[in-house]
Every structure is written in structure tokens, then in C-alpha cells.
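Problem 12. The chain below contains 209 residues. Write out its predicted structure in C-alpha cell notation.
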Amino acid sequence: MSEFEEGGLDSLTTWFKTNQKLISIVLGGMVAVGLGVVLWQKSAQTKVQNAERAFFQAQTATAQNPANAVAELGKVATRYAGTSAGDRATLLMAQSMMTQGKTAEAMKKLEALNSGGGAERLGSTLQTLMAAGYENLNKPAEAAKSYLAAAATSIGDAKVQRQADAARSYMAAGNTTEALKLWTELAKDERGALAAEAHVRIGELAVKQ
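Solution.
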């Protein structure tokens, strides 16, 4: 038998008295941890709310003066990196850069976002924009990889479209082997929206091989 079972309530009371300091430390620690979790959650929630507010303000400022889009969105992207608002600010900032002919600079922002967890948070949206950027930089092989990454997180027609985009990019890069694999797969769905193009592309690639 344990000491508690032998002595009953008296032994238990004695144990509590003897170990009062230890119990106080443990309970105090539990309260501190619980309070820390609550404060962290509140802080995280406040950050998200502030991020959304800042993003809305940046959009408003951008609408009023498009020339300031990069600067205003950049502030949100930097200050609230890792939040949904920060991610969206980065995407819009990159788009604005591309329209200004600053694709190389925009791609640095997108690649940093991608490596910083943006791929998991944004999926095909980020990868498709990156693919468009690589196309603008005349890097079709990189564009194809991004289109395939976008396809991997897409479904239905969107998935098929990204696969076709990847196939076209591989053709532009001169990678007929990978392009043929994709077009052959797309041609299997005879009722698919891209079946006709797939058969044409297969014929074109067959001539080149």
C-alpha cells in the first residue's frame, strides 16, 4: 500500500502541508503558463486585426494614388510579414512592380515570400504569379516549374489550365520531353477543354523528335 492508502485522509493532509511550497510553485507555474497563452493569443489576434486594418488603408491609398502602391503595400508586407494581410500586400506589391517593368525586383519579393512559408499559405495564387514573372523575364523553364507547383494545389479546370501552361512553357524552353508528357496526359480526357490543343501539340512535338 502507498502512504496515502495506509494513512488515509490524515496522511494526505500531512503530505500537502509538508509539500506546500512545492505545490505553490507548481500551481503558480500553471497559472503563469495559462496567462502567457492567453496574452499570446490576444497579442496574435491584435496583430492580425492591425494587419487587416493596415492593408485596407494601403489599398485605399493606392486607389487614390496608384503611384504610391509599391510604397504603401510594402509597409504592410514588411511590418506584418507572415499574416494573411502581409501576404496579400506582397502579392499586390509585386503585381504593381511588374506593371512598372520592375519584374526582376518583384520576383525577389515573391521568391522571398515563397521560401518564407508563402507557398503553404497561398498555394496556386503565389505560384501562378511567380510563373508569370518568370515568363516576363524569359525564363520558361522556371515558369513551367511554378505552373506545375500551382497545378499541384489546384483542382478541376484550374488544375488542367496550369498543367497546360506548364506544357507551353516547357515547349518554349525547348524541353520537348516534359512538354510531351504533359500534353499526352491532357489528351487522355477527350472531353476536356484542352484536349484538342493537346492533340495538336503532340503532333507538333512528334515532328521535332
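Discussion. The CA atoms of residues 163 and 205 lie 17 Å apart. Students who got a different answer should revisit the alignment rule from Section 12.3.
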